[in-house]
Every structure is written in C-alpha cells, then in structure tokens.
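Repro case for the chain-ordering regression, as requested:
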Amino acid sequence: DAKTTQPTSMDCAEGRAANLPCNHSTISGNEYVYWYRQIHSQGPQYIIHGLKNNETNEMASLIITEDRKSSTLILPHATLRDTAVYYCIVRNAGGTSYGKLTFGQGTILTVHP
Amino acid sequence: DGGITQSPKYLFRKEGQNVTLSCEQNLNHDAMYWYRQDPGQGLRLIYYSQIVNDFQKGDIAEGYSVSREKKESFPLTVTSAQKNPTAFYLCASSPGTSGRSSYNEQFFGPGTRLTVL
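-- result from build under test --
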C-alpha cells in the first residue's frame, strides 16, 4: 500500500473551514484515498473516500489532485466536536488482504473557540 | 440500533492471566478486525476475519488468538505470551463484498482499555 504523509498537528478556529492535507506520491492506479478520524478514547470513525473525483458527503469534502499524489480533506464549518486525530489511508479496494487498513499517526486537529 | 459493541470498556488483569475481549456486531458484515493502539500511536492490526470460520494474522498477532464461529462475533484472547498487553483494543467490521471500495469502510466499536497489573 502507498505510504501517506500528514502534518503532525493543525489548528482551526470554530466556524471556519479546516483543510487537512495528505501526500501520497506513490499511490497506484487502483488505490483509493480513505479518511478516518478518532476522537480521544473512542474508536475511529469513517469520514469519506475517493478514487480520483472529488467527493462530498454530509461530513466533509475530499479534493484529490489531478495527478492523485495528494489530497485535502475539508471540514467546511469546523466545530469544537471536530477536534480529533485525522487519518489519511491509501488502500486498494480488493486483493487478498482487502479491508486491511494501515493507520499512521495522523494529524491532530484542534478546533478552538 | 445497528453497530458494534465491545465489552467491557475497562479491564484489569494480573500478569500471566489470559483474558478474552468481546466484540459483537449486528451490521451483517462479513469481515471483522482487531486493532491495538498504544498511547500517541496509530492503530496496528492484530487479526482479521473475512468470513466465518476463517481468520488471518495481522501485523502483530504474536501473543493473541481469535475465533470466528459466528458471523456476528469475533472474540480476542490476550494470552500470557503477549509481552506488553496493556493497550487500547479496538474491534471493527466492514461489508463483505470483495473488490468494492466500500469494503474498506470499517465501523469501529468503542474499544476496551486493558490494563495488566
């Protein structure tokens, strides 16, 4: 699986958009980009995933560059409850070990009043 | 409500004792997973199961054992052979359609924090 690089931490003011970057320069053609987040002492929560087109759901938007070597997770109006560790994961959809996700250290997002 | 339950939330055991962590899901998911998380670290995969009566070792399976006798249950036993068992243990499940991107949409339980004294 392709390796991802994320900033260790980021801050965001409440009500503003939080833009979390992720580099995945070695991503291959059949690998998707997944985002999860983990609020302190809870299990991770799936946010969104995409292959090459931009995606949006009720939680966030995912912008993937045309060369697919990087992506940005956007929380359009961050709230204090969005304070969490955000994980960017690159994974293919199938294969013999499908479903096996590798969580790195992620980005600690702190939303402040 | 549909979801994944793990019990208990906190568990204390003496060194040298085996302990079994419970994980149950009513999402009708084929695949289930066990992860371990240490303070300030990401998750590491212990074992996973794609279907009933089948499971595979993850990255750190030594000192752990699992069973998958029922689709909805995937208990994890932390044996005395596990050298550093104190950690936060997370169970997850995902849909079972191979090759679909949704297979990687894993749903996590609330976790069990195990402390070995």
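Ordering looks correct now. The beta strands of chain A are 9-13, 18-23, 31-38, 45-50, 55-56, 61-64, 70-75, 84-92, 107-112.
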